[in-house]
Design goal:
The protein is an alpha+beta fold. Helix content is 36%, strand content 20%. It contains five helices and six strands, in the order E-E-H-E-E-H-H-E-H-H-E. It has helices spanning 28-40, 76-92, 95-99, 111-121, 131-140; strands at residues 2-4, 9-11, 48-56, 62-70, 102-106, 153-155. The strands form two sheets. A four-stranded antiparallel β-sheet has the order 4-3-5-6, with helices on one face. Strand 1 and strand 2 form a beta hairpin. Helix 2 (76-92) crosses helix 4. The longest helix has 17 residues, at 76-92.
Amino acid sequence: ASHHHASNSVVRQCHSHSHLVDPTLHMYDSAFRIVEKLAEGLVHLGKEMSVLAIDSFGDVEIFPILAAPTCKCEDTEKMVSIFTLAIDCWQETGAEEQLGPIFSVAADGDSTWRATGHHMFLKHELSTMSRLYGTVISICSCFSSGLPDLRSVSILV
C-alpha cells in the first residue's frame, strides 16, 4: 500500500474490495483498521491494473479512460459490466462527438479479458464477402508462420 499525501489516504487497494474500508487516515485507528482488513483478507492490494484505453479511427492518440488496481477476482460478467460502463461514459460525456467513435479496444491477453472481449465485440461472424475480410486475410498472408495471434484485439465494425 502507499500513502497519497494530497488526500491523506492509503491507495492501491483493489477496486473490487476497496469500498469495504475507509482509506482516509483520520487518526492512528484509521491506519490500524486498514491493516486489520488487509490481514483478514477482506481488502486486497492491487496485484495488477485493469486499464482501458480507447482509440478513435484516424487519430494518433490513445485515450486511457480507466485504470483500476485489481486483485484478479473479477470474472467475465463483472468485466463486461465495467467495460460497458466505461464505453457508455465515452458516449454519454460527449467524447464520441469530440474525438470520434470507438475504433479499437485492445488488452494484454489476460484470459478474463479475452473472454470479455469475445462476449462484447465478436457478435457477428465476418462474411467472406466483406471488404474487411479481404484486408484481414491479406495482412495475415504476410506472416510466413500462419495467422498472427489476434486473440486480444477486437475491431468494432
